[in-house]
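Tutorial, part two.
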Amino acid sequence: MYDYVIIGAGSAGCVLANRLTEDPKTTVLLLEAGNPDQKQDIHIPAGFSKLFKTEYDWAYYTEKQPYLNNRQLYWPRGKVLGGSSSINAMIYIRGNWRDYDHWHDLGNQGWSAKEVLPYFIKAENQNILKNDYHGVGGPLNVTNLRCINPLSRAFVEAGIEAGLPFNQDFNGAEQEGVGFYQVTQKNGKRHSVATAYLKPVLQRQNLTVKTNAQVTKINFSGTQVFGITYLHQGSFDEIKVAKEVILCGGTINSPQLLMLSGVGDAEQLKSLDIPVVVDLPGVGKNLQDHLALPIAYKCTKPISLANADTFENVLKYLLFKNGPLTTNVAEAGGFVKTRPELKIHDLQFHFAPVYFLNHGFTRPDGHGFTFGPTLLYPQSQGSITLRSNNPLEAPLIQPNYLEKEADLEVLVAGVKLSRRLVQMKAFDTFRGEEFVPGLQVQDDEEIRVYIRNSVETLYHPVGTCKMGNDDMSVVNSQLQVHGVQGLRVVDASIMPTIIGGNTNAPTIMIAEKAADLIKNC
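Running the prediction step on this input gives:
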Protein backbone atom coordinates (compact mmCIF):
# COMPACT_ATOMS: atom_id res chain seq x y z
CA MET A 1 0.00 0.00 0.00
CA TYR A 2 1.20 3.51 -0.88
CA ASP A 3 0.18 6.84 0.62
CA TYR A 4 -0.37 8.30 -2.85
CA VAL A 5 -0.79 6.78 -6.28
CA ILE A 6 -0.11 9.26 -9.10
CA ILE A 7 -1.61 8.31 -12.46
CA GLY A 8 0.44 9.73 -15.34
CA ALA A 9 4.11 10.79 -15.34
CA GLY A 10 3.59 13.90 -17.44
CA SER A 11 4.07 17.57 -16.72
CA ALA A 12 2.01 17.39 -13.51
CA GLY A 13 2.74 13.85 -12.35
CA CYS A 14 6.53 14.21 -12.32
CA VAL A 15 6.27 17.44 -10.31
CA LEU A 16 4.03 15.81 -7.71
CA ALA A 17 6.23 12.71 -7.46
CA ASN A 18 9.18 14.98 -6.66
CA ARG A 19 7.42 17.26 -4.19
CA LEU A 20 5.41 14.67 -2.26
CA THR A 21 8.45 12.43 -1.69
CA GLU A 22 10.44 15.30 -0.17
CA ASP A 23 9.05 13.91 3.10
CA PRO A 24 10.83 10.54 3.45
CA LYS A 25 7.86 9.14 5.40
CA THR A 26 5.49 9.68 2.43
CA THR A 27 5.33 6.79 -0.04
CA VAL A 28 4.37 7.40 -3.67
CA LEU A 29 3.71 5.15 -6.65
CA LEU A 30 3.95 6.89 -10.04
CA LEU A 31 2.37 5.01 -12.96
CA GLU A 32 3.00 5.88 -16.61
CA ALA A 33 1.27 4.18 -19.54
CA GLY A 34 4.17 4.91 -21.88
CA ASN A 35 7.85 4.08 -22.10
CA PRO A 36 10.96 5.56 -20.49
CA ASP A 37 12.32 8.60 -22.35
CA GLN A 38 15.45 6.95 -23.73
CA LYS A 39 15.12 7.79 -27.44
CA GLN A 40 17.68 10.37 -28.57
CA ASP A 41 15.12 12.37 -30.59
CA ILE A 42 13.37 13.27 -27.32
CA HIS A 43 16.44 15.10 -26.05
CA ILE A 44 17.57 16.82 -29.27
CA PRO A 45 15.33 19.92 -29.41
CA ALA A 46 14.86 20.05 -33.19
CA GLY A 47 13.71 16.42 -33.26
CA PHE A 48 10.34 16.82 -31.57
CA SER A 49 8.14 16.37 -34.65
CA LYS A 50 9.94 13.08 -35.40
CA LEU A 51 8.23 11.72 -32.28
CA PHE A 52 4.74 12.29 -33.67
CA LYS A 53 2.84 9.07 -34.49
CA THR A 54 5.50 6.90 -32.83
CA GLU A 55 5.31 4.73 -29.71
CA TYR A 56 5.89 7.91 -27.66
CA ASP A 57 2.63 9.46 -28.84
CA TRP A 58 -0.99 8.53 -28.05
CA ALA A 59 -1.65 9.83 -31.60
CA TYR A 60 -5.29 10.69 -31.07
CA TYR A 61 -7.70 11.91 -33.72
CA THR A 62 -10.76 14.07 -33.26
CA GLU A 63 -14.17 13.23 -34.61
CA LYS A 64 -15.05 14.80 -37.95
CA GLN A 65 -15.25 18.54 -37.44
CA PRO A 66 -18.47 19.94 -38.94
CA TYR A 67 -17.06 23.49 -39.18
CA LEU A 68 -13.76 22.31 -40.72
CA ASN A 69 -15.29 20.55 -43.73
CA ASN A 70 -15.55 17.29 -41.76
CA ARG A 71 -11.79 16.94 -41.30
CA GLN A 72 -10.52 14.70 -38.51
CA LEU A 73 -7.61 16.45 -36.79
CA TYR A 74 -4.55 14.68 -35.45
CA TRP A 75 -3.79 15.31 -31.77
CA PRO A 76 -0.31 14.28 -30.58
CA ARG A 77 -0.06 13.65 -26.82
CA GLY A 78 3.04 12.39 -25.02
CA LYS A 79 2.93 8.71 -24.03
CA VAL A 80 6.31 8.61 -22.30
CA LEU A 81 8.00 9.72 -19.09
CA GLY A 82 7.59 13.49 -19.12
CA GLY A 83 4.31 13.27 -21.04
CA SER A 84 3.83 16.00 -23.60
CA SER A 85 6.81 17.93 -22.15
CA SER A 86 8.92 15.22 -23.83
CA ILE A 87 7.47 15.83 -27.31
CA ASN A 88 6.55 19.54 -27.28
CA ALA A 89 8.29 22.61 -28.72
CA MET A 90 9.62 23.64 -25.28
CA ILE A 91 8.16 27.18 -25.31
CA TYR A 92 8.03 28.66 -21.81
CA ILE A 93 4.93 30.84 -21.57
CA ARG A 94 2.81 31.37 -18.48
CA GLY A 95 -0.22 32.99 -20.08
CA ASN A 96 -1.73 36.38 -19.38
CA TRP A 97 -1.95 37.42 -15.73
CA ARG A 98 -5.59 38.37 -16.29
CA ASP A 99 -6.32 34.69 -17.00
CA TYR A 100 -5.63 33.71 -13.41
CA ASP A 101 -7.51 36.65 -11.95
CA HIS A 102 -10.44 35.46 -14.07
CA TRP A 103 -10.17 31.99 -12.52
CA HIS A 104 -10.30 33.64 -9.10
CA ASP A 105 -13.31 35.75 -10.10
CA LEU A 106 -15.10 32.56 -11.12
CA GLY A 107 -14.95 31.49 -7.47
CA ASN A 108 -11.64 29.59 -7.36
CA GLN A 109 -10.01 30.88 -4.21
CA GLY A 110 -6.21 30.86 -4.22
CA TRP A 111 -5.80 30.96 -8.00
CA SER A 112 -5.38 34.68 -8.71
CA ALA A 113 -2.30 35.95 -10.55
CA LYS A 114 -0.74 37.14 -7.31
CA GLU A 115 -1.30 33.75 -5.70
CA VAL A 116 0.00 31.56 -8.54
CA LEU A 117 3.10 33.66 -9.33
CA PRO A 118 5.10 32.18 -6.40
CA TYR A 119 4.61 28.70 -7.88
CA PHE A 120 5.88 29.76 -11.29
CA ILE A 121 8.89 31.25 -9.51
CA LYS A 122 9.39 28.14 -7.35
CA ALA A 123 9.52 25.88 -10.41
CA GLU A 124 11.92 28.02 -12.40
CA ASN A 125 15.66 28.19 -12.83
CA GLN A 126 15.83 31.29 -15.01
CA ASN A 127 19.18 31.67 -16.78
CA ILE A 128 18.77 35.12 -18.32
CA LEU A 129 16.10 37.42 -16.89
CA LYS A 130 16.47 38.95 -13.45
CA ASN A 131 13.32 40.53 -12.02
CA ASP A 132 10.51 39.95 -9.55
CA TYR A 133 8.66 37.66 -11.96
CA HIS A 134 11.38 35.01 -12.19
CA GLY A 135 13.08 32.47 -10.00
CA VAL A 136 16.55 30.94 -9.78
CA GLY A 137 17.27 27.54 -8.31
CA GLY A 138 14.04 25.76 -9.21
CA PRO A 139 14.07 22.39 -10.98
CA LEU A 140 12.99 23.63 -14.44
CA ASN A 141 15.69 25.28 -16.54
CA VAL A 142 14.43 28.24 -18.58
CA THR A 143 16.76 29.98 -20.99
CA ASN A 144 17.19 31.67 -24.35
CA LEU A 145 17.69 29.67 -27.52
CA ARG A 146 21.35 28.99 -28.25
CA CYS A 147 21.04 29.50 -32.00
CA ILE A 148 18.47 31.83 -33.59
CA ASN A 149 17.89 31.77 -37.32
CA PRO A 150 18.19 35.06 -39.30
CA LEU A 151 14.59 34.59 -40.48
CA SER A 152 13.36 34.64 -36.87
CA ARG A 153 15.27 37.87 -36.33
CA ALA A 154 13.60 39.26 -39.45
CA PHE A 155 10.18 38.39 -38.00
CA VAL A 156 10.89 40.35 -34.82
CA GLU A 157 12.26 43.31 -36.80
CA ALA A 158 9.19 43.24 -39.05
CA GLY A 159 6.91 43.32 -36.02
CA ILE A 160 8.70 46.38 -34.68
CA GLU A 161 8.48 48.03 -38.10
CA ALA A 162 4.74 47.35 -38.08
CA GLY A 163 4.37 49.19 -34.77
CA LEU A 164 4.43 46.31 -32.31
CA PRO A 165 6.61 46.73 -29.22
CA PHE A 166 9.64 44.52 -28.69
CA ASN A 167 9.09 42.29 -25.67
CA GLN A 168 12.09 40.52 -24.14
CA ASP A 169 9.97 38.90 -21.39
CA PHE A 170 6.53 37.56 -22.33
CA ASN A 171 6.23 36.28 -18.74
CA GLY A 172 6.86 39.62 -17.05
CA ALA A 173 4.60 42.56 -16.40
CA GLU A 174 3.21 42.80 -19.95
CA GLN A 175 2.60 40.18 -22.61
CA GLU A 176 2.09 42.42 -25.66
CA GLY A 177 4.61 42.62 -28.47
CA VAL A 178 7.04 40.50 -30.46
CA GLY A 179 10.21 38.75 -29.39
CA PHE A 180 12.08 35.47 -29.08
CA TYR A 181 10.62 32.66 -27.02
CA GLN A 182 12.42 31.32 -24.01
CA VAL A 183 12.57 27.55 -23.83
CA THR A 184 12.77 24.69 -21.34
CA GLN A 185 16.26 23.57 -22.33
CA LYS A 186 19.50 22.96 -20.47
CA ASN A 187 22.92 22.81 -22.08
CA GLY A 188 21.33 22.63 -25.53
CA LYS A 189 19.08 19.68 -24.63
CA ARG A 190 15.35 19.43 -23.89
CA HIS A 191 14.60 19.94 -20.20
CA SER A 192 11.38 17.97 -19.81
CA VAL A 193 9.68 17.48 -16.45
CA ALA A 194 11.09 13.95 -16.43
CA THR A 195 14.61 15.37 -16.64
CA ALA A 196 13.94 18.34 -14.37
CA TYR A 197 11.81 16.79 -11.61
CA LEU A 198 11.80 13.00 -11.79
CA LYS A 199 15.30 11.76 -12.62
CA PRO A 200 17.03 13.71 -9.81
CA VAL A 201 14.86 11.89 -7.19
CA LEU A 202 14.61 8.37 -8.64
CA GLN A 203 16.92 7.10 -5.92
CA ARG A 204 14.46 8.03 -3.15
CA GLN A 205 13.40 4.88 -1.31
CA ASN A 206 9.85 6.18 -0.89
CA LEU A 207 9.26 6.65 -4.65
CA THR A 208 8.33 3.81 -7.00
CA VAL A 209 7.98 4.45 -10.74
CA LYS A 210 6.43 1.99 -13.18
CA THR A 211 6.32 2.53 -16.95
CA ASN A 212 4.12 0.68 -19.45
CA ALA A 213 1.50 0.64 -16.70
CA GLN A 214 -1.90 1.85 -17.89
CA VAL A 215 -4.49 2.46 -15.19
CA THR A 216 -7.85 1.10 -16.26
CA LYS A 217 -10.00 1.92 -13.23
CA ILE A 218 -10.10 3.87 -9.98
CA ASN A 219 -11.67 1.66 -7.31
CA PHE A 220 -14.27 2.94 -4.85
CA SER A 221 -15.96 1.70 -1.71
CA GLY A 222 -19.10 3.79 -1.84
CA THR A 223 -17.68 7.21 -2.65
CA GLN A 224 -14.30 6.60 -0.98
CA VAL A 225 -11.33 5.75 -3.20
CA PHE A 226 -9.41 2.74 -1.96
CA GLY A 227 -7.12 1.98 -4.89
CA ILE A 228 -6.63 1.48 -8.62
CA THR A 229 -6.46 -1.29 -11.21
CA TYR A 230 -3.75 -1.13 -13.86
CA LEU A 231 -2.52 -3.17 -16.82
CA HIS A 232 1.16 -4.08 -16.79
CA GLN A 233 2.93 -6.66 -18.98
CA GLY A 234 -0.33 -8.20 -20.09
CA SER A 235 -1.95 -8.71 -16.70
CA PHE A 236 -4.11 -6.62 -14.39
CA ASP A 237 -2.86 -5.66 -10.94
CA GLU A 238 -4.56 -3.82 -8.09
CA ILE A 239 -2.93 -1.34 -5.76
CA LYS A 240 -4.42 0.01 -2.55
CA VAL A 241 -3.87 3.59 -1.45
CA ALA A 242 -3.75 4.93 2.10
CA LYS A 243 -4.42 8.61 1.42
CA GLU A 244 -5.22 9.71 -2.15
CA VAL A 245 -5.23 8.80 -5.80
CA ILE A 246 -4.01 11.77 -7.86
CA LEU A 247 -5.09 11.75 -11.50
CA CYS A 248 -2.56 13.45 -13.80
CA GLY A 249 -3.57 11.89 -17.11
CA GLY A 250 -4.18 15.14 -18.96
CA THR A 251 -7.16 16.67 -20.71
CA ILE A 252 -8.07 13.48 -22.61
CA ASN A 253 -7.11 10.66 -20.28
CA SER A 254 -8.19 12.15 -16.96
CA PRO A 255 -11.90 12.52 -17.83
CA GLN A 256 -11.76 9.19 -19.67
CA LEU A 257 -10.55 7.38 -16.55
CA LEU A 258 -13.05 9.18 -14.30
CA MET A 259 -15.91 8.07 -16.54
CA LEU A 260 -14.60 4.49 -16.80
CA SER A 261 -14.53 4.46 -12.98
CA GLY A 262 -18.13 5.64 -12.58
CA VAL A 263 -17.60 9.39 -12.15
CA GLY A 264 -19.41 11.38 -14.83
CA ASP A 265 -22.74 11.95 -16.49
CA ALA A 266 -24.97 9.25 -14.97
CA GLU A 267 -27.13 8.73 -18.03
CA GLN A 268 -24.17 8.22 -20.33
CA LEU A 269 -22.44 5.87 -17.87
CA LYS A 270 -25.59 3.77 -17.50
CA SER A 271 -25.88 3.51 -21.27
CA LEU A 272 -22.42 1.91 -21.30
CA ASP A 273 -23.17 -0.41 -18.35
CA ILE A 274 -20.75 1.45 -16.07
CA PRO A 275 -21.93 1.52 -12.41
CA VAL A 276 -22.39 5.13 -11.30
CA VAL A 277 -20.34 6.24 -8.28
CA VAL A 278 -21.28 9.91 -8.51
CA ASP A 279 -23.26 11.86 -11.11
CA LEU A 280 -20.91 14.61 -12.32
CA PRO A 281 -22.22 15.81 -15.71
CA GLY A 282 -19.27 18.17 -16.23
CA VAL A 283 -16.69 15.39 -16.62
CA GLY A 284 -15.32 15.64 -20.16
CA LYS A 285 -17.14 18.88 -20.96
CA ASN A 286 -15.66 22.39 -21.30
CA LEU A 287 -12.97 21.24 -23.77
CA GLN A 288 -11.01 24.21 -25.14
CA ASP A 289 -7.95 24.31 -27.40
CA HIS A 290 -5.76 26.69 -29.37
CA LEU A 291 -5.98 26.59 -33.16
CA ALA A 292 -3.18 27.70 -35.47
CA LEU A 293 -2.70 27.79 -39.23
CA PRO A 294 0.29 28.21 -41.56
CA ILE A 295 0.98 31.26 -43.72
CA ALA A 296 4.13 30.13 -45.49
CA TYR A 297 6.54 31.78 -47.92
CA LYS A 298 9.36 30.60 -50.10
CA CYS A 299 12.71 31.92 -48.94
CA THR A 300 15.06 33.42 -51.52
CA LYS A 301 18.17 32.45 -49.54
CA PRO A 302 19.20 28.93 -48.42
CA ILE A 303 19.21 29.78 -44.72
CA SER A 304 16.11 28.06 -43.32
CA LEU A 305 16.07 25.06 -40.99
CA ALA A 306 15.71 22.82 -44.04
CA ASN A 307 19.49 22.44 -43.69
CA ALA A 308 19.38 21.73 -39.94
CA ASP A 309 20.41 18.08 -40.07
CA THR A 310 23.47 18.32 -42.29
CA PHE A 311 26.52 16.33 -41.19
CA GLU A 312 28.23 19.54 -40.10
CA ASN A 313 25.28 20.58 -37.92
CA VAL A 314 24.89 17.11 -36.40
CA LEU A 315 28.59 17.20 -35.48
CA LYS A 316 28.20 20.71 -34.05
CA TYR A 317 25.36 19.49 -31.88
CA LEU A 318 27.05 16.29 -30.71
CA LEU A 319 30.32 18.04 -29.87
CA PHE A 320 29.18 21.43 -28.60
CA LYS A 321 25.36 21.20 -28.09
CA ASN A 322 25.02 24.19 -30.38
CA GLY A 323 23.82 25.04 -33.87
CA PRO A 324 20.48 24.60 -35.63
CA LEU A 325 19.61 21.31 -33.90
CA THR A 326 19.13 23.24 -30.66
CA THR A 327 16.17 25.03 -32.24
CA ASN A 328 12.62 24.56 -30.96
CA VAL A 329 11.47 25.47 -34.54
CA ALA A 330 8.99 28.09 -33.23
CA GLU A 331 11.82 30.44 -32.33
CA ALA A 332 9.99 33.77 -32.29
CA GLY A 333 6.49 35.06 -31.85
CA GLY A 334 4.34 37.51 -30.02
CA PHE A 335 0.97 38.57 -28.68
CA VAL A 336 -1.31 41.06 -30.41
CA LYS A 337 -4.86 42.39 -30.31
CA THR A 338 -6.81 41.98 -33.52
CA ARG A 339 -9.03 44.90 -32.49
CA PRO A 340 -7.73 47.92 -30.54
CA GLU A 341 -10.69 48.03 -28.15
CA LEU A 342 -9.90 44.57 -26.71
CA LYS A 343 -8.72 44.40 -23.10
CA ILE A 344 -6.61 41.31 -23.68
CA HIS A 345 -4.56 39.96 -26.60
CA ASP A 346 -6.54 37.45 -28.66
CA LEU A 347 -3.86 36.32 -31.13
CA GLN A 348 -0.45 34.71 -30.63
CA PHE A 349 2.20 34.25 -33.30
CA HIS A 350 4.50 31.28 -33.62
CA PHE A 351 7.14 31.95 -36.27
CA ALA A 352 9.14 29.07 -37.76
CA PRO A 353 12.18 29.69 -39.99
CA VAL A 354 11.19 26.67 -42.10
CA TYR A 355 8.10 25.25 -43.75
CA PHE A 356 5.97 23.91 -40.89
CA LEU A 357 2.90 22.34 -42.47
CA ASN A 358 0.69 19.50 -41.27
CA HIS A 359 2.63 19.05 -37.99
CA GLY A 360 5.88 18.77 -39.95
CA PHE A 361 4.76 15.76 -42.00
CA THR A 362 4.43 17.78 -45.23
CA ARG A 363 7.92 18.82 -46.34
CA PRO A 364 8.08 20.90 -49.50
CA ASP A 365 11.37 21.09 -51.34
CA GLY A 366 13.51 24.15 -50.88
CA HIS A 367 13.65 26.82 -48.21
CA GLY A 368 10.74 28.63 -46.62
CA PHE A 369 9.37 30.22 -43.46
CA THR A 370 6.03 30.05 -41.73
CA PHE A 371 3.84 32.44 -39.76
CA GLY A 372 1.53 30.61 -37.34
CA PRO A 373 -1.25 32.92 -36.13
CA THR A 374 -2.96 31.25 -33.18
CA LEU A 375 -6.43 31.78 -31.71
CA LEU A 376 -5.91 32.39 -27.97
CA TYR A 377 -9.41 32.53 -26.48
CA PRO A 378 -11.77 30.29 -28.44
CA GLN A 379 -15.47 30.70 -27.74
CA SER A 380 -16.15 27.26 -29.22
CA GLN A 381 -16.13 24.42 -26.70
CA GLY A 382 -16.25 20.66 -27.03
CA SER A 383 -16.10 17.46 -25.04
CA ILE A 384 -14.39 14.14 -24.37
CA THR A 385 -16.78 11.18 -24.11
CA LEU A 386 -16.44 7.41 -23.96
CA ARG A 387 -16.94 5.27 -27.04
CA SER A 388 -17.38 2.18 -24.89
CA ASN A 389 -16.55 0.80 -21.45
CA ASN A 390 -13.29 -0.63 -22.82
CA PRO A 391 -10.44 1.26 -21.07
CA LEU A 392 -8.05 0.52 -23.94
CA GLU A 393 -10.24 2.18 -26.57
CA ALA A 394 -9.52 5.83 -27.32
CA PRO A 395 -12.31 8.18 -26.25
CA LEU A 396 -14.37 10.30 -28.60
CA ILE A 397 -12.76 13.75 -29.00
CA GLN A 398 -15.12 16.48 -30.21
CA PRO A 399 -13.61 19.99 -29.92
CA ASN A 400 -16.31 21.67 -32.05
CA TYR A 401 -13.62 23.84 -33.61
CA LEU A 402 -14.88 27.13 -35.11
CA GLU A 403 -18.47 26.48 -34.10
CA LYS A 404 -18.55 30.14 -33.07
CA GLU A 405 -18.09 32.59 -35.93
CA ALA A 406 -16.05 34.94 -33.74
CA ASP A 407 -13.23 32.36 -33.57
CA LEU A 408 -13.00 32.28 -37.34
CA GLU A 409 -12.76 36.06 -37.58
CA VAL A 410 -9.77 36.22 -35.22
CA LEU A 411 -7.92 33.84 -37.53
CA VAL A 412 -8.94 35.87 -40.62
CA ALA A 413 -7.30 38.85 -38.93
CA GLY A 414 -4.25 36.68 -38.23
CA VAL A 415 -3.86 35.85 -41.92
CA LYS A 416 -4.05 39.53 -42.84
CA LEU A 417 -1.55 40.53 -40.17
CA SER A 418 0.88 37.81 -41.32
CA ARG A 419 0.69 39.18 -44.85
CA ARG A 420 1.29 42.68 -43.56
CA LEU A 421 4.34 41.61 -41.56
CA VAL A 422 5.95 39.80 -44.48
CA GLN A 423 5.81 43.00 -46.53
CA MET A 424 7.97 44.86 -44.02
CA LYS A 425 11.47 45.88 -45.03
CA ALA A 426 13.02 43.28 -42.69
CA PHE A 427 11.88 40.51 -45.05
CA ASP A 428 12.99 42.21 -48.29
CA THR A 429 16.09 40.03 -48.72
CA PHE A 430 14.26 36.77 -47.89
CA ARG A 431 10.72 37.12 -49.24
CA GLY A 432 9.77 34.73 -52.03
CA GLU A 433 6.28 34.00 -53.28
CA GLU A 434 3.52 33.00 -50.89
CA PHE A 435 3.43 29.20 -50.70
CA VAL A 436 0.21 28.86 -48.70
CA PRO A 437 -2.52 29.97 -48.87
CA GLY A 438 -1.25 31.57 -52.10
CA LEU A 439 -2.08 34.86 -53.77
CA GLN A 440 -5.25 33.43 -55.31
CA VAL A 441 -6.75 33.58 -51.78
CA GLN A 442 -7.61 37.24 -51.26
CA ASP A 443 -11.07 38.21 -50.02
CA ASP A 444 -12.39 37.33 -46.57
CA GLU A 445 -14.53 34.45 -47.77
CA GLU A 446 -11.59 32.86 -49.60
CA ILE A 447 -9.50 33.24 -46.42
CA ARG A 448 -12.26 31.58 -44.38
CA VAL A 449 -12.29 28.62 -46.77
CA TYR A 450 -8.51 28.30 -46.42
CA ILE A 451 -8.77 28.39 -42.62
CA ARG A 452 -11.41 25.66 -42.50
CA ASN A 453 -9.25 23.47 -44.75
CA SER A 454 -5.91 24.13 -43.06
CA VAL A 455 -6.24 24.98 -39.38
CA GLU A 456 -4.73 22.51 -36.87
CA THR A 457 -4.43 22.10 -33.12
CA LEU A 458 -1.53 23.87 -31.41
CA TYR A 459 -1.51 21.00 -28.88
CA HIS A 460 -3.09 22.86 -25.95
CA PRO A 461 -6.34 21.08 -24.99
CA VAL A 462 -7.58 22.01 -21.51
CA GLY A 463 -10.64 22.22 -19.33
CA THR A 464 -12.34 18.80 -19.24
CA CYS A 465 -12.23 18.44 -15.42
CA LYS A 466 -13.07 22.06 -14.70
CA MET A 467 -12.24 23.64 -11.37
CA GLY A 468 -15.19 25.46 -9.83
CA ASN A 469 -18.37 25.34 -7.78
CA ASP A 470 -21.10 25.28 -10.43
CA ASP A 471 -23.08 22.26 -11.62
CA MET A 472 -20.63 21.56 -14.46
CA SER A 473 -17.41 21.73 -12.42
CA VAL A 474 -15.49 18.56 -11.58
CA VAL A 475 -12.99 19.63 -8.91
CA ASN A 476 -12.99 22.29 -6.19
CA SER A 477 -10.27 24.88 -5.67
CA GLN A 478 -8.28 22.24 -3.75
CA LEU A 479 -8.50 20.08 -6.92
CA GLN A 480 -10.55 17.44 -5.06
CA VAL A 481 -13.18 15.72 -7.17
CA HIS A 482 -16.69 16.75 -6.12
CA GLY A 483 -18.76 14.10 -4.41
CA VAL A 484 -16.01 11.57 -3.66
CA GLN A 485 -13.21 11.23 -1.11
CA GLY A 486 -9.53 10.52 -1.72
CA LEU A 487 -9.33 11.67 -5.34
CA ARG A 488 -7.83 14.74 -6.99
CA VAL A 489 -7.19 15.79 -10.56
CA VAL A 490 -3.97 17.73 -11.16
CA ASP A 491 -3.26 18.65 -14.80
CA ALA A 492 -4.38 21.03 -17.56
CA SER A 493 -7.89 19.55 -17.50
CA ILE A 494 -8.71 21.53 -14.32
CA MET A 495 -8.37 24.90 -16.07
CA PRO A 496 -11.82 26.53 -15.99
CA THR A 497 -10.87 28.65 -19.00
CA ILE A 498 -7.95 28.33 -21.39
CA ILE A 499 -4.98 30.58 -20.76
CA GLY A 500 -3.54 33.01 -23.31
CA GLY A 501 -0.41 31.14 -24.28
CA ASN A 502 1.34 27.77 -24.33
CA THR A 503 0.10 25.44 -21.60
CA ASN A 504 3.14 23.52 -20.32
CA ALA A 505 4.42 26.07 -17.80
CA PRO A 506 0.90 26.61 -16.33
CA THR A 507 0.48 22.84 -15.92
CA ILE A 508 3.75 22.69 -13.96
CA MET A 509 2.53 25.61 -11.82
CA ILE A 510 -0.76 23.78 -11.13
CA ALA A 511 1.18 20.75 -9.89
CA GLU A 512 3.52 22.84 -7.73
CA LYS A 513 0.51 24.47 -6.08
CA ALA A 514 -1.30 21.14 -5.76
CA ALA A 515 1.69 19.65 -3.92
CA ASP A 516 1.33 22.29 -1.22
CA LEU A 517 -2.45 21.81 -1.09
CA ILE A 518 -1.94 18.07 -0.55
CA LYS A 519 0.81 18.49 2.04
CA ASN A 520 -1.28 20.97 4.01
CA CYS A 521 -4.45 18.89 3.83
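DSSP finds twelve helices and 25 strands in the chain. In part three we will examine how such features are distributed along the chain.
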